[in-house]
Amino acid sequence: MLRIFHNTKYEFVKHWRLAAMLTIAFIVLGLVTFGITGGVKYSIDFTGGTLMQVQFKQAPDVAVVRSTLDKAGITGSEIQQYGTATEYTIRARDEKQVEAQDAGAEGISKLISSALQQQFGEGNVTVVRTEAVGPKVGSELRAGAFTAMLIASLFTLMYLAIRFDWRFGAAAVLSTAHDILLTLAFIKMFNVEVSLTVVAAILTLLGYSANDTIIIFDRVREDLKKRAKGESLAQVLDRAINETLPRSVMTHATVLASTLALLLLAGEIIRPFALVMTFGVFVATFSSIYVAGPFLIWIESRYPRTTSDSTSRAVNAGNDAAGGKGSRKAERLAAR
Predict the structure, then answer these.
(1) pTM for this structure?
(2) Average pLDDT, stretch 263-281?
(3) Strand 125-133 to strand 49-56: parallel, antiparallel, or no bridges (unpaired)?
(4) Which of 323, 308, 298 is nearest to 232 (CA)?
(5) Residue spans per domain, the chain
(6) 297: helix, coil or strand?
(7) Fold of the domain built from segment(s) 49-133
(8) For the chain, what is the mean pLDDT?
(9) What's the CA angle centered on 57, arms 55 and 58, to 5 degrees?
(10) Which pLDDT band, with edges at 50, 70 and 90, does 152 fall under?
């Protein structure tokens, strides 16, 4: 059986400062982009409006399409090429048009179709699909997406607090928050349109990243029980990461191959999901190694354990060896 990265002894945790600088730089760059160009670009799912996918017999001039819609009273529309040179999407987001959708978006789509048919000729324009979302529904979807991410983080914290210890849970949640910030910065910098599909990708990323962190923390818990004398918590974390490295490499490589296949071959509708997930594979790998572990060390140094179980003795002693602020009781236990 093929075995890769077997019995490795890489020192991961000692590079946490470099990892922190890279993370902060990326997030700051995203914040600067937010400050310069405003918020993320929401799709029709969240803003309300009409989305139509149309196909022309011949490639049209986009300027002509836009002027045609303006003449028909449909101002503020977004026109984008979709796939081939003859396929386009039209988003009508003018406030009057959005408000009119509460009364029925079918009239707006008919108005767009009629205007295009008159300009390009009957039968030269085909409406492939039409979607409509009212402004109230869009607002509810935004609130629901935020609530879903919050609930996912809370359940992760509760699970890890019960399964391991609240310190492990706090480190995992902070690591997950890091993933969300980096992903939002990526979405903004690459101008990815935020739709329900992208929200699904972010939620998938939360679970994927948490799962990777849990696997490492589970091995940390086991290694703490058989910790060698004088071994620091940072060294235990390095050992746990190395022991789970073959599994992590195979898992991440498989997921990355799938997301790249979707990104390159699945088409425009699924492409934002695949793009966010492809970036998410790298973020989840990075955070489970360089973010979750250092956060755990920091939390353990600030809030050392005082219980007498063997795992707690190992953690406190590991903190002392790493320069943490362990209690005198932990020092006595570590000296035994």
Answers:
(1) 0.71
(2) 86
(3) antiparallel
(4) 323
(5) 13-38+138-335, 49-133
(6) helix
(7) Alpha-Beta Plaits (3.30.70)
(8) 79
(9) 105
(10) confident
